[in-house]
Specification:
Layout: H1 6-19, H2 27-44, H3 46-61, H4 70-87, H5 93-115, E1 128-129, E2 132-133, H6 135-153, E3 157-159, H7 164-180, H8 188-199, E4 203-207, E5 212-216, H9 217-237, H10 257-275
Antiparallel strand pairs: 1-2, 3-4, 4-5
């Protein structure tokens, strides 16, 4: 495992000691490998999962007449989660920088999107910028946290990864389109084609334990986008924010948002590679 925190290195030592007698072949070996894969994924999601649990809990149990507005309570809770993760060495300093970058780029987009009516948050509270509660930036930070953690937990390596300057240019164009399509034509499908052309030859290698998975990187992008879309449906159901079609009651987020999340994934990946350059397959 690369770049692990001190706590993670201790967990890794204990896990290897427990698993050292495990069989190399057969159904039991495959089951153990799958269990390790799921546990690593759960650990990579710890920040986002904690934030999602808080959003659901606020929907179910936070009183509407509380002195502290729900948005403010969520913001304070998100900050506390971040503090705990740093204090207990669940997160590295480099990861914190990535999360801050995601937080800032996400908040800028939120300010614009709420102003043009793409979605809205409940009013109230003091911890907000314009119509955007500060906890919203942590939701983007959760994506960044997952991306950098999964990078080192699975010792990710790549073959035929595109030149980084090309990926930076494309990511900048995608980010600009999130704003520009409100005033000009929407180029998302052109950008999706560009993503496919650029990353189609790329294969990702992810080491679970003994097994190294070889996956088309575009399929991984799509899978994570679907996962985030599912979390978005939970978040809107919990009232963290809402789209115009949910004004009269909750309904599923439009599947068209999958393309938005797919493109946002590209921005996320490129931002992470600025901190952790993509390594070759090991």
């Amino acid at each position: 495992m690369q770049w692990g925190t001190s706590l993670e290195r201790r967990i890794d030592v204990v896990a290897r000691r427990v698993l050292q007698g495990a069989p190399h072949h057969g159904s039991r070996a495959r089951l153990i490998e799958f269990a390790v894969f799921l546990l690593k994924q759960a650990w990579a999601c710890i920040f986002g999962a904690s934030l999602l649990v808080l959003i659901i809990a606020a929907r179910l149990w936070y009183p509407d007449d509380a002195l502290l507005a729900r948005n403010d309570a969520l913001t304070i809770a998100a900050v506390l989660i971040q503090v705990v993760m740093i204090a207990f060495r669940l997160e590295t300093g480099r990861e914190l920088w990535v999360i801050v970058i995601f937080h800032l780029t996400g908040t800028v987009m939120e300010l614009f999107k709420t102003d043009v009516g793409s979605w809205q948050y409940a009013a109230g509270g003091f911890l907000h910028l314009g119509a955007v509660p500060l906890f919203s930036g942590f939701m983007y930070g959760a994506v960044g946290s997952y991306m950098v953690r999964v990078h080192r937990l699975f010792d990710l390596g790549f073959t035929r990864y595109p030149r980084r300057w090309l990926t930076v240019v494309l990511a900048a164009a995608i980010y600009a389109n999130f704003f520009a399509h409100h005033f000009w034509i929407d180029l998302r499908w052109v950008l999706i084609v560009a993503v496919v052309v650029l990353w189609l030859p790329t294969r990702m290698y992810a080491r679970s334990w003994r097994v190294t998975l070889r996956l088309p990187l575009l399929a991984v992008f799509a899978g994570v986008a679907v996962f985030i879309y599912a979390a978005e449906n939970i978040g809107t159901w919990a009232g963290a924010w809402s789209y115009p079609n949910q004004a009269d009651g909750w309904e599923l987020v439009s599947p068209s948002k999958l393309t938005s999340w797919f493109l946002l994934m590209i921005i996320s990946v490129v931002l992470v590679t600025l901190v952790y350059p993509p390594a070759g397959a090991r």
